[in-house]
Design a protein that fits this description.
2 domains, globular, Beta-lactamase, two-stranded antiparallel sheet, nine-stranded antiparallel beta sheet, about 350 residues, alpha+beta, 13 strands
Amino acid sequence: MRDTQTCHPVIVLIKTQPKNPTKMFFRIPLLLLIGLMASVATAKEITKTSGSIVDSVFATGPIKSFMLQREGQLIIDAHRMGMQSDRTTNIKSVSKSIISLLVGIAIDRGYLRGVDQPIGEFFPNYFNRHPDPVKQAITIKDLLTMRSGLASTSIRNYGRWVVSDNWVEYVLDQTLVSRPGDDMIYSTGSSHLLSAILTRASGMSTRSFANRYLFGPLGIRDGGWDQDPQGYYFGGNNLALSPESMLRIGTMVMNNGVYDGKQIVPEAWIRESMRKYTRSRFNPYDYGYLWWQRELNGQQLQFAWGNGGQYIVMIPELDTVLAVASRNGGDRRNSRASRQRFFAFIENHLIDYLRQPAPVN
């Protein structure tokens, strides 16, 4: 249900009629006037439909921001619970997809050799004390696709992991429960290892690296980013970005790494990241390099997803990007139900809305 007590005014950006069309009457040919009247009627209908879209998406769960960009135009900019487009919020595991972009940049700039580089090179002290040829041979690609083979540090193990004295070593200490490169084992520990690798390879903190090569070029400022006891920035959780920033990242990714005419992330990396390498055992989603994919209503969705309802969603064939931020908290059962309602909203309402003609300047 939509919380009307905490709801802030919803802004829906739609192209509408001129302020005073009657003054234009005798200067516009009849056929053009008829076309104008039809456009006004269409704009009113789109406005009505957009309002229905906003109501529908807010009814799926505790969403506090919903931004929709189509064909480069911001069509819907809706917020409640005191949220605004430029206010930062914890994007949870959407952070993992940010790490993926940073790894691609690091490879392109020569800080890393490639996705087949083994992790043993980055943690020599640990492996000198705990030699394990199989763990040392785990590759960057295995971490990017959640196929390290190491037992997960997420869900039930998450609390014990984040109160440990050394997050990186805690991850590396985990038992091998699968052969690296085989099964998908979702684990924030895997993406955190990538953050530590980025820092060790570049000589910069992950946050400094992001500011130099990703956030800075996109005009983004983060609102905070947690660190582990050794000072490594959390590779996969607790990064704060605004919905507006999330929309910029989605726009850049959907445009094959280009934003405002500049190549921010290599095009080849974007394409490689969106391939299907594995599939979740718990959700009907495919997985690339820390990016999710699924098909709904004949459309392929590519998305970053964070617990509690944080999303960057791209629908390339409809030239559409969504940024969604939700109130954090609540149990996993409610979170799962909200997620199911959100994707049902996309499948049953949003895609059909997007198939209508776009508003015209």
